[in-house]
Amino acid sequence: MTFATAAAAGIAVANIYYNQPMLGIVEGDFPGAASTALIPTAAQLGYAASLFLLLPLGDLLNQRRPIVGQFIVLAGALALAALAPSAPVLVLASLVVGLCSTVAQQIVPFAAHLASPKRRGATVGTVTGGVLTGILLSRTLGGFVSAHGGWRGMFRLVIPWRWGRRR
Asked: Which sign, positive or negative, has the C-alpha torsion 42, 11, 26, 24?
């Protein structure tokens, strides 16, 4: 269970960093669109806004609901990013991805709550390690996938294979 929560937290936070090594490829698909430079900024601003606005709700609500809800919206935002017909739509999708990626910070206390008192510190450390691993590996994965499958390929990982091939 600890590994699963660490992986979920790492995968969630990684979504705000995938776009950074792909910007050159994205700009090639949307030539002349100055808004492509706003893609990583939108993701980071969404993340910051969510830390301020949504994260405190985890203390007021049952943590399972916000975690599941944010993952569902995150998957939808990633699908929108993969199918974005224009740079402004991709910027909007990146903003929503940022808003929902704070689910990683909700998973950490949830995992601590689920752990036995003897394992609580180790659990928090492992899940936090998952967050840091997600941050560090996301740029490498984003660059690799976009170099071999295009920038949409990175976002298509959340879309069932048959949908991702129709375009």
From this structure: positive
